[in-house]
Amino acid sequence: MEGEFRYRGRGITAAEVEFIRQLIAQHPGANRRQLSLQLCEAWGWKQANGALRDMVCRGLLLELERAGHLELPPASHVHRNPSTRRAADGAKALAPRLLDTTPLEVPLRAIRPLEFQQVRRTPEEPLFNYLLAQYHPLGYTRPVGEHLKYIVYAAGRPITCLAWSSAPRHLGARDRYIGWSAEARRCNIRFLAYNPRFLIVPWVQVKHLASHILGEMARRISTDWERAYGHPIYFLEAFVDPERYRGTCYRAANWGVLGRTTGRGKNCPTKRPNRSIKDVLGYPLTPRFRELLAEV
User: Which range marks the domain in which residue 280 is found?
Assistant: First the structure.
């Protein structure tokens, strides 16, 4: 292996690849997950809450195998379209009577206070997955990296789903707005959360509901994130496709437009756009966000 292999911003040296090869050779009966856990322990790859970064490590092993640098044991399980399977499992777990689709068209004050539930790894998670799969234009996909899932209830009825996940590592408009260095970005990207899905179920028509929910989320997400992952959140971001939406609810909740994406995605081999160009919106959770995110 010549030079350095890079994965998620981390350089992987030839010596480290050789270490992985030896680890595989020393444990001929281990499956991929067991190898990943052992590698996490050996390298100290842990989240802020102490949990091993198993999924990130497994992704590295797969990329190294695809690049021809090592050979992994055969996969013990092959899952076809796991996001679809999880959503289908959620649908099967729901009795139709649990979803009240009676139209809800009332003033916001009539349904306040709303109940916010973080449902990841709870019995309510299949409902979240089902609602997104059934009613969101982009369907359901598992959020990336660290992530939380929320269902918002009004008088016991689920009316909104929000997903929050790890932020993209490179985003020009955001990075220029924050003004951090490449090293600071690598150190502090975990302090940002990205909103990949926001759904208000179609039978709910309540004026100002979306911006109200975004405001409430901004007040609680950092505390919830620290409880789950051992660190706070200082900045929120989202993408809006201007050909389909105006992003009115974000703007009404005081999110700012930071610029636009390039339309190339993270793995584009050329400099030409290969997907829709989106507005990048951001919301600082503390006035000191630039100072905090610049620390290395």
Answer: 91-293
If asked whether residues 149 and 216 sit together in one domain, one would say yes
Pair (131, 56) in one structural domain: no
Residues 6+ apart with CB under 8 A from 169: 8, 9, 185, 186, 189, 266
Q: In this structure, are 43 and 96 located in the same domain?
A: no
Work out whether the CA dihedral 60, 65, 67, 70 comes out positive or negative: positive
Burial of residue 236 (CB within 10 Å: 0-12, 13-18, 19+) is buried
Report yes or no on whether pTM surpasses 0.85.
no
Question: What backbone phi and psi angles, to 5 degrees, belong to 147?
Answer: -160, 155
10/59 Cα distance (integer angstroms):
13
Count Cα atoms within 13 angstroms, Cβ side, for 162.
Answer: 22
Tens digit of each residue's pLDDT, the chain (296 residues): 555 677 766 778 888 888 999 999 998 889 988 999 999 999 988 876 678 888 788 888 888 888 888 888 887 654 444 544 554 454 444 444 468 889 999 999 999 999 999 999 999 999 999 999 999 988 998 887 899 999 999 999 999 999 999 999 999 999 999 999 999 999 999 999 999 999 999 999 999 999 999 999 999 999 999 999 999 999 999 999 988 888 999 999 999 999 998 876 555 455 555 567 899 999 999 999 999 999 98
User: Which of 175, 163, 196 shows the shortest CA–CA distance to 290?
Assistant: 175
Indicate whether 82 belongs to any domain. no
Residue 83 within any structural domain of the chain: no
* Pair 146, 277 in one domain: yes
Q: Does 236 map to a domain?
A: yes
Q: Judge whether 164 and 191 are in contact, CB under 8 Å.
A: no
- Residues 49 and 134 reside in one and the same domain: no
Structure tokens at 105: 């068209």
